[in-house]
User: Fold Holliday junction resolvase RecU from Apilactobacillus apisilvae.
Amino acid sequence: MAIHYPNGSTYNWPKDNHRPKSHYNNNKLTLYGDRGMTLEQEINKSNLYYLNQDIAVIHKKPTPIQIVKVDYPKRSAAVIKEAYFQKASTTDYNGIYMGNYIDFDAKETRNLTSFPLANFHKHQVEHMRKCVHQGGICFALIKFVKTDELFLFKATDLFSYWDSQYVGGKKSIKKTIIEKLGIKINYSLNPTIPYLSAVDQLLNSKGES
Amino acid sequence: MAIHYPNGSTYNWPKDNHRPKSHYNNNKLTLYGDRGMTLEQEINKSNLYYLNQDIAVIHKKPTPIQIVKVDYPKRSAAVIKEAYFQKASTTDYNGIYMGNYIDFDAKETRNLTSFPLANFHKHQVEHMRKCVHQGGICFALIKFVKTDELFLFKATDLFSYWDSQYVGGKKSIKKTIIEKLGIKINYSLNPTIPYLSAVDQLLNSKGES
Assistant:
């Protein structure tokens, strides 16, 4: 849990959880998202809600790991003794929602006025391009951490800015552009991040066009 | 590469690859699948073909691993020093094919006349059930290793046999049933396992019904 003071400094609560009782417990809701959770945790929690409510089946893929050495002790589980983190070749999340293939990645930035494109790897963008080509619903969930603002940003919009950086364009997307083209997602109680409501908007606008 | 003798014993070629040249190298194709590849490798290779040909975007999910200890040596990559394999909570493969969400698992059996249901975990079957509910195309690729026969078996068929084992039914599916209800997939050169042709049959029969 981190508290962000107006002067920009951050206070991190000690890990043994000597922190004020959650606003949830006080039955007074302040919907800034649970500041103790990372974006990944917020999304996982939301996905679990969607799963349990039979709304969608969307999971985070496990982190790819290259295993070098494994021990097999007698009568106990195999122990991985040497392994390395690998770069993901796809996005982190995918699944199905009402017959639609959903594919997205989640990115946080501490910047206040823009989102650096370097947050994406080239192969992630290429993966999304291939999924869009197959008819998938692809996007990024972009969080401005310091202001707790979250946006769904369509992959097709991302592609434009991604490609333009190679022909003299900017290496980042202005927050004002993300506000204009993206769909703002407001934190809620359950699911924490109701991003499928934003996907509904995408699907509706698709139907109209 | 393992050679399976008729008496049931197995000979594993030494790792330095002193094994007979692949039939592919001899330019004489025997389409039993490459016996040096596991089913997983065959599917990964096929998925790569589908990906490169812009036919579908289907990936194997990384194996979930619980990381306990990581070292961060100076000036080099983080090394995982203690970690354990976790059971997957979903199937191994998913992705998108012509707008359809695809979700499946691959299972091998050395049995000759039946496929033991114990090859599946309960949560994998539940995952497929939820995906089918959302409109996904779900199935198992079942390989009878000793005869190199491969079948696409629809998840909805699997559910019947899976459920019946809890009410006095058999703990396995007879091969004759898999031959009757499933779709046989013949090995080919590229993709090694043309399983999307079998999916086409599923999609066509869906359209008719």
In short: Chain B touches chain A through 38 residues (CB under 8 Å). The first strand of chain B starts at residue 2 and ends at 4.
